Amino acid sequence: MSSSIIDDQPYGRFHRKLFFLSAGGPFLDGYILSVIGVAITGATRELGLTSLAEGLVGAAALVGVLVGGFVFGWVTDRVGRQVMYTIDLIALVAASALSLFVTEAWQLVLLRFIAGVAVGADYPIATSLLAEWLPVHRRGRTMGALVAAWFVGASASYAVGYLVAAAGGEDLWNWVLASAAVPGLIILLARIGTPESPRWLLRHDRPQDAAEAIRTAFGRYPTEQELARLAETEPAKNSRLSDVFTGGYLRRTLFVGGFWFCQVAPAFAIWTFYPVILGAYGFEAGDTALLWSMVVSLVTLAGCVPCIRWVETYGRRPVIIWTFVGVSASMAALGSFPGMAAALAILLFVVNALAQGGGNILQWIYPTELFPTDIRASAVGVASAISRVGAAAGTYLLPVGLEAIGLGPTMLVGAGLSVIGTAMCVAWAPETKGQALHESAAVPPQSEVRAS
């Protein structure tokens, strides 16, 4: 494995700070997408929302994430990671704070859409910047840990919603939505001064700026030899968004977008309608729905923890395959025996949540490792956009499926999607553990020769 000053650098204070700042995006995503479930009842009563308007409010942020990831991934590859690293959060903070002044349904839909665009934009921005600064021996576990921040954000939104509801009731729904501006502003201010990715700078033929960025991060300038060695792995190149869909990268785009789709389509549907689904299995959630949703998020978070280490010890490929197997098996059991005891159903949902959490950590490892610097943010944006199509479809179709075909068949459809994801990973998932970023992104890499 060829190395560089970035790969040889010990994991230190700069990396830890950059991780926490980058994790702010997933945290806010989990918070913003989950907090609407807390606020929607009060908003519906005060604004007189119709069922159509409720659907638009619920879907607006998801659609925004799709648009933000697709558009601003490409923009980030053109103008740089650092400048976009703060602009997107300015929009998020503003949209969240303005929720305090909403008086009509269209205003709420628009603000939710803008907040979603900002979160979607942050996916390719923050993940690309972090991946391009990480040493090879810590890249997998650190990128995987970003996903855990999503569940921390979701749990935080349920906790805030529960406390606000206990203090002032549903009338404070706009304060619940506006609360996202507080962590958003903190993260925004902390991100100011973050150095640009030297890999991106070298791709744009700016070696002096790359040397300055390295000095800011590591406290010293690189030697001529160190900068030359890094430049060899990141030759100056201008690419187009279409490169994500051509040549050897097309299969990778289908892979990362496909497995992400198969993960989130059933997962978002279940997370959104947990009280309804559990009620169908005979479990009465009652007034504790918010607390139960928080518990589910924490269980899913617990599933992330061991896999964050396993992607470095056992590898990316076995982790994603076996977690898909766990999701497929648990959903197949739930679908095959819809009349099972509530306690057994809860146990299977716990298994499902643990497996989902473990597999989700690959959502930002593979897209950042399988594409080169000049199209990395674009690829992450495209993959996240594809995933949000799955999330929106799953969330919309689950209640339709429960009414049209019943509980068991609906769960079996989710199991079928997970089986497709399993097959996709068996066929296409490469092993990138221990590879330098430019090696895992090369086409065709040795890692895609599947072990027999």
From TrEMBL:
It is found in: Cell membrane. It is a multi-pass membrane protein. PANTHER family: PLASTIDIC GLUCOSE TRANSPORTER 4. The chain crosses the membrane at residues 18-43, 55-76, 83-103, 109-131, 143-166, 172-193, 254-277, 289-307, 319-337, 343-366, 378-398, 404-429. One of its GO terms (cellular component) is plasma membrane. GO terms for molecular function: carbohydrate:proton symporter activity. InterPro entries: MFS_dom, MFS_sugar_transport-like, MFS_Sugar_Transporters, MFS_trans_sf, Sugar_transporter_CS. This is MFS transporter. Residues 18-433 form the Major facilitator superfamily (MFS) profile domain. Keywords: Membrane, Transmembrane, Transmembrane helix. It comes from the Bacteria. Belongs to the major facilitator superfamily. Sugar transporter (TC 2.A.1.1) family.
